[in-house]
Hints:
Order of helices and strands: HEHEHEHEHEHEHEEHEHHHHH
Distance between the termini: 15 Å
Bound molecules: iron/sulfur cluster
CATH class: Alpha Beta
Number of helices: 13
Strand order of the largest sheet: 6-5-4-3-2-1-7-8-9
Largest sheet: 9 strands, mixed
Radius of gyration: 20 Å
Amino acid sequence: MDILALRPVPAAAVLMAITRRCPLRCRHCSTGSLPASEEHPGEIFQRFAGTFAPGDGPRLVMLTGGEPLLRPRLARSLAETAARGGARTMILSGMFFAPRVPPAAGGAARIPPAIDAAIDAADHFSASLDAFHEEEVPRESVFAVMRALLARGKDLSFHVTGTGPGDPYLRDVTAAIRREFGDRVPMLVGRVGAVGRARTAALAIPSLPAATGSEAAPGAPAGTASRTAPPAPPAPTGTSGAVTASEAGPPAGTGTAGSALPCAMAAWPTVGFDGTITACCNQDVVDHRPVPGHLRLGHAGTDDWDTVRRRCLESGVLRALRTYGPLWLAGAPPERGYCETCRTLDVPPPAPTPAAFVERQVRDLQLAGGGTGFARRYGCPPYDHLVSLGHPERDHDF
Length: 398
Ligand code: SF4
């Protein structure tokens, strides 16, 4: 809830994809990661984190990949450096280190020491869980690691992904997480998008590891079974949930040619695998070179946080994307593709900077929706309320 509530706030956080490597081979992987994928010197990321200054740095650093815990010493060092700069750190992992053979029922897993130290240094730890990950790492093994972390008071969450509101896997896994952790661990439920390996892979959904039901999403409000999802947006372009480096699909919504549909993703700078810093974490933006000029904020090897932050806050095009969205800027019809329109934007100077009061109103509207509002817009209704599980201010009116 707290992290997602910050999502529309420009430069409130920075994402760092510290390696594209991953030992898992999940069929839907948005980053197309492999064990020998690209990886660049840790000093690039370390240097950039060293420029965070207390009071002026990001409030949150999110370490992702690939699999960030393939570089546990770097992850730990970045978390410690970020803390000295006044930032909290979150790690998102695919859980490759969970034991292949789950411990006996209810048991906690042993975590390799270097990885354990990295998780300890971070303020929040999130595990990816979906049908494709479960082909690689058993669900019970992931639960055993999370049990061990929860027992020592770690702040945890799950990033859960499915094919959409009607996906029976989502009903099954969200119910299992709620049961296992007594509603103390929140989850952000997102949708698989056509990006990375998922762009070309035939994504037949693996069979469920446990029995499924046909009822509404567990814990959802009465009547949710027949609740319809918002009008389907164009296919999202990320797979691992709406806050990660592989996220950044378009928001849910409809529109006519040139209609306003603000992009809340153009808010958190993203340090890509090679240190290039982009204005959002849309995987096509992170992956392709050259980065479109209006979406490039700098490079972690040469720029400091203050420069990147100023570019993020002051760019007229980014301010317009956050306020009106790319379709409005391009006068394009929605069927042209939300992020695709953005990537090919050709806005002649002067940049179409929105009036400050309009910009503020749009941002405040998004802030008023809080973490749940963000999950509703970018995640997978009817599961948006699950981001509030375990939150001290949890809304009990579900
Ligand atoms: S609309 Fe543009 S800034 Fe927003 S997520 Fe898509 S590519 Fe990134």
